[in-house]
Amino acid sequence: MSVVEQMLDTHPGNRGFGVEGKLRACIEACGECAQVCTLCADACLGERDVAELVTCVRADLDCADLCEATQRVLSRRTEGDDTLVRALVKACAEACRMCGEECERHASRHEHCWVCAEACRRCESACRELLAAL
């Protein structure tokens, strides 16, 4: 069990909501996706055809920023604003969808885009599952 899992298990803000598993999955997926998108953007910048990847780099960076913000807000469980949480998780899911689609356009030529598209899909799914449970 990771330290983050221990914190979530012991945090009083998580008791009684019934979404602990989906919350944990979303927090973890957001963290992974943010890191992968940042790495993908950097890898795109190292490619010879970087001019063709400008939209991908922007999508990667936007997605990484939203995933990081979502991860941080979801980690604050004490008396949070559910309206804000829902809006942020919904925006994160949409950013992941868009980034995943953009990365898929380049996946046949750039393996890092394939890896990123997969991480985006996992995060989008985790966000949508959490939204359904809230």
The total of helices stands at 5
CATH class: Mainly Alpha
- Regarding quaternary structure, what we see is single chain
What's the β-strand tally?
Answer: 0
Which regions have little confidence, pLDDT < 50, spanning 5+ residues?
Answer: none
Task: Determine the N-to-C terminus distance.
Answer: 25 Å
| Percentage of β-strand residues | under 5%
Number of domains: 1
Q: Nearest-angstrom radius of gyration?
A: 16 Å
Instruction: Specify the CATH architecture.
Output: Up-down Bundle
Q: What proportion of the residues is helical, as a percent range?
A: over 70%
- Fold-level CATH name: Substrate Binding Domain Of Dnak, Chain:A, Domain 2
Following the backbone from N to C, one meets helices and strands in this order, namely: HHHHH
| Structural class by helix and strand composition | mainly alpha
**Average predicted confidence as pLDDT:** 90
Question: Overall 3D geometry?
Answer: elongated
**Largest β-sheet summary:** none
